[in-house]
Amino acid sequence: MPLEAVAQIDDAGADQEYLYTLNFGPQHPATHTTLRLVLTLDGETIVKAVPDIGYLHSGFEKLGEDLDFNQYVTVVDRMNYISPVANEIAWHHTVEKLLGIEITPRCKYIRTILAELARISDHLLCIGAAALDLGGLTAFLYAFNEREKVYNIIENASGQRFHPSYTRVGGLMADVNDEFVTQVRDFAKSFAKAHADVVRLLNRNKIFIDRTKGVGVLTKAEAINTSCSGPVARASGVVRDLRKDEPYLAYPELQSAFKVVCSNGGDCLARYLVRMDEMLESAKIIAAAVENIPSGPVNVALDSKLVIPDKSATYRSIEGLIQHFELFMWNRRFETPVEELYGANETANGELGFYLVADGSGKAFRARTRPPSFIHFGIFPKIMEGHQISDVPAILGSLNIIAAELDR
What is the CATH number of domain 60-405? Predict the structure, then answer.
């Protein structure tokens, strides 16, 4: 990594001090090949930190103008590739809000279960990778054992492990089976033990505590003023969670099953502890939801003319065949109101929102995304100032920046 000495000259023309510019990443292990930081150093102390994005450019907002509301789900999958099904749910939540569609009770519960599984999966990677970046390999392995179980559940439902593309306008690609219910029930019961293993490894680990406590402090006022959300904001004392404040899916019926986890620490340790406790709350939601999944269809009725008919309807009824042709072959996909609106879900990293501009066609005229990682990466320079180079992995890991959410 190149070092460049920069002489600072005062008004009298004398050398005041020497600062150095250090390129941190994108090849550094802690930046995971997708993030770059330009650090200005006074010895080991960081005077200034400038994030440099653009190393995982996908153009996902522009693609939203070229794909219809179902096709675009394959793109939102890849925004936060750590918990992709949560992105799908947030996207179609906004589209259904635009079209005035009320999804079925069964679909609400299944989506809720998948959203909470995605939250746990995302938090597990965040905590595991943060520990790994600070030298703790075992916690990383423990976390990934549980993530594999989540992937098995996602694969059972959608047929794909990593980018499921499972939601559709008005419902889901397909209904879940009894094996899915069994897998979810078993995961909800066994997760507490795996969670306790990570707690024993890290919560009283002197090295981990020393590397995170009092490091990267974000005050409550700063979190509010910079539009932070999710665990980053709640670790600074901001009591806001869309699942409670603006309930959607099955959350109105599951309010008593979970609580909003907050802290006043505002540092890396507080963000870690909030995520750890949030996973237990998510497990409670999953356990309550899986035992109360309603019967019935997962997709809204065919007479809405907006949902993809299932294969049996396409092959065995003229109505289903015509609707399939209208949605795909004749490009008469959706008739939308000419309207602008915003919809958001509480994902693992915070508020994931989509601002849709509809022009009456089957595609979005504009699909603006509010990704939490983009907001949180913006606060990194502020909370990094005055810390040492060795604190960069701790602070970066506690913010859980997903690079694919940064670029447009």
Answer: 1.10.645.10
